[in-house]
Amino acid sequence: MKNLDHWIGGLAVAPGSGTYFDDLNPVDDSVYARVAAGTAADVDHAVETADKAFRQHRDLPAAVREGWMVKAAEIMERDAALFSEVLIDEIGSPAAKAGFETRFALSFLRAAAGVPRRVRGETIPSDTPGRFSMSLRQPVGVVAGITPFNVPLIKGIKQSAMALATGNAFVLLPSEAAPKVADLLAALWREAGVPDGLFNIVYGNGAEIGDALTGHPKVASITFTGSSRVGKHIAGIAARNLKKYTLELGGKSPLIVCADADLEKAVGAALFSIFMYQGQVCMGASRIYVERPIFDAFAKAFAAATAKAKGGDLREPTTMLGPIISERQRDRVRRHIDDARTKGAAVLAGAEWNGNSCSATVLSGVTPEMTVFAEETFGPVTSLYPFDSLDEAIDLANDTEYGLSASIFTRDIDKALRFAQQAEAGMVHINAPTLHDEPHVPFGGTKASGFGREGTEADLEIMTEWKWVTVQTATAGHGGH
Hints:
Belongs to the aldehyde dehydrogenase family. The chain has about 475 residues and is α/β, with parallel strands linked by helices.
């Protein structure tokens, strides 16, 4: 099996330690690839290389960077099947999810093509006569990106495309569970014409080398997607070193179903919101609140639909559920379900295992002393709760440390807009799933779900730095004569 080496300065670079780790296919835990185990020295090499490349290429015209995005989109469209295949085999994506992720990455590249020409400042009236005043947006330098296993292509494209489109250099530390996806990105950007050194990858264990990357003195900005615990740690490093950063973290997203909702649509949306990619999605609706008059009807319909959620062959288009990514995460899912059962929760559907896959699971009667009540499971598990009024639903939805996404199903626009205003979440969807993203929107959460926002507009805040420039003209002090 060919080893997967770091990508630094346009070259495959063996790890300084000489050691490699196994990248496993989660279907059966067979070895999918052997991957370089990075060290702090490898990180330093990548950042120094990126910094040098940035200084060499920082003044490239916007049209050149626009060209990279356009070409990358063409390559992504051409190689969509290859990207999907790797997503299926490396991280256990069902074909439908792999196709969605590839299409989103392509869409993001097309949206990013417009970014280089939008890196604009403005002219500003000055209080000093004869002084011309203006602001400029300039690239920050080296951007560090850390991506998760669950949507490695979406996040890898989001982070790297925005860094490159705004004139920066980029160093990627991908999840240990998704290195091959990152390797495909290196090939994509090189073919798209990005100069060597502007896009770099260091593989390895984030717990061991993440601090070397985020704390490196030549890293100016950090964009991270992962757990809230690690996000808080990175925020501390960024604060101590006065770095810009964006964090997209965990969630415990609520989905509200009012008595006047379209029941069939609400059931379908709930199914997608929590069981897409076997629940390994930060926006997953792991808390579903249903107004009491329709609680029993919804529970029955949702449990029946859940029981039909298909597992099995990942390449079959109708497969929704695949394997849980690792044994550590499987243990977490089992622990949450078993704890709830032991403490009296009812299992309305699922809670069965087939190899490394857990069936879609619906719980009822979940109480605060159960682990699943407040903690993010990150698996195909959701809980149903009744409510009696919209005020109660809003209070229940907000009773969490997280605040990523929220959804409400109702035909009453007043109720919908009131919920949208009062929900403590970065994103609220009305009569739609909790799970949704688009390239140009301000994507992100509040509270323990994140800091800052992602997107072709929002990312300008961490990818560029404002500079104020004034010019004192010769007519100053002459009163215009």
